[in-house]
Amino acid sequence: MKFLAACTNLFWLWTILGVVWAWYQPAAFTWFLTGVVPGTSVKLLTAGLGIIMLGMGITLSLADFKAVLKTPKQVFVGVAAQFIIMPFIGWSVATLFDLEPMLKLGVILVSCCPGGTASNVICYLARANVALSVLMTMCSTFLAVVLTPYLTKFYASAILDVDAGAMIWSMVTIVLLPVVGGVFLNHFFKGKLERVKAVSPVISVLVIVLIVGGVIGLKKDSIVEYAASLLPAIFIVHILGFALGYLVAKLLKLEERSCRTVCIEVGMQNSGLGSKLASDHFSTLAMTPCAISALYHCLIGSLLAAYWRLRPPAE
Questions:
Q1: Are the CB atoms for 115 and 137 separated by under 8 Å?
Q2: From the DSSP assignment, how many helices (H) and strands (E) are in the chain?
Q3: 307: CB partners within 8 A, 6+ apart
């Protein structure tokens, strides 16, 4: 169990290694984006994200939903910041850098996605409020079923006509059904899923690395072509997300551990989900910012965690 936990905590390292590997050997990762589950027509990417969401669901219980009612202010602040700050930053920075339309759309899309499960690991390492992190990830994931499509439509309407209804259906099948299914599995098989819960985070890390590596390998030429504007733009998006998340929590006088949590949750997006939505509804080029986003938020989040871990928050 400790070995699995250690592997999960090093997700930032696996992401970097995956990106480097994919850069020099694209075929080692692109199969995950182009292949299907043997004997079916289900894409491996779809199945992988479904497994991640199912894994998230089995870590949740009905008590977690009740816990939201006990800390409504903190959860509300965090989730509101997630869906107000990041989409606006994504649109603003992409517009300022005058990105190619599909790249701009990709930046907007990933900025409108909910927090990812990796944020829970970073919160643990940063001595933040892990319980709040889990609650925020849970709430933002459920709300994203509707908010991500409509926020993307709102900010990207000048680029193309976004079919929010089709995106909502994708969110229902990729996010809502697996998470709810996981919650019910955890409820009815309580105590019998401990091994699955231990392995689930590692599988999530593996799937994310495969997605990020696959996009990097598939769009290597585009990354080189647009690197001068795309790389700094996405870096700024995440730096501002982390910074403004922390600042808003401070201004609203949340305790230090909760401020760290909001900072991390706002700054880290579910880039795998963004890649899937971009692939299904837009273009493979729109997937590129999502992959770069995953690399940046892993690195920035890990550096923050290392810094904060040496500075325990005052009780």
A1: yes
A2: 16, 0
A3: none
Question: pLDDT means per 10 residues in the chain (315 residues)?
Answer: 74 83 90 85 82 79 72 84 92 92 92 81 77 82 88 84 78 80 82 77 81 83 86 94 93 88 88 84 85 84 82 69
Total residues found in the chain within this entry:
315
Residue type at position 305 = A
Nearest of 238, 66, 206, 84 to residue 155 by alpha carbon? 84
The position carrying tokens 């701009």 is: 104
- The pLDDT of residue 263 is 92
Contacts of 310 (CB under 8 A, 6+ apart): none
Nearest Cα to 269, choosing from 186, 152, 190?
A: 152
Q: Which residues share a beta bridge with 43? A: 36
| The two three-digit tokens of residue 307, written as one number | 């810094």
* Closest CA relative to residue 262, chosen from 11, 70, 79, 109: 79
Tokens of 293: 């986003």
CB 271 within 8 A of CB 212: yes
Helix (H) or strand (E) holding 19: helix 11-24
Max CA separation in the chain (angstroms): 55
Collapse the DSSP code of 165 into the 3-class scheme (helix H, G, I; strand E, B; otherwise coil) and give the result: helix
Paired tokens of 133 = 């992190």
What residue type is 251 in one-letter code? L
Enter the pTM of the model: 0.84
Q: Which residue bears the tokens 């998340």?
A: 245
Nearest one of 52, 280, 289 to 166, comparing CA atoms:
280
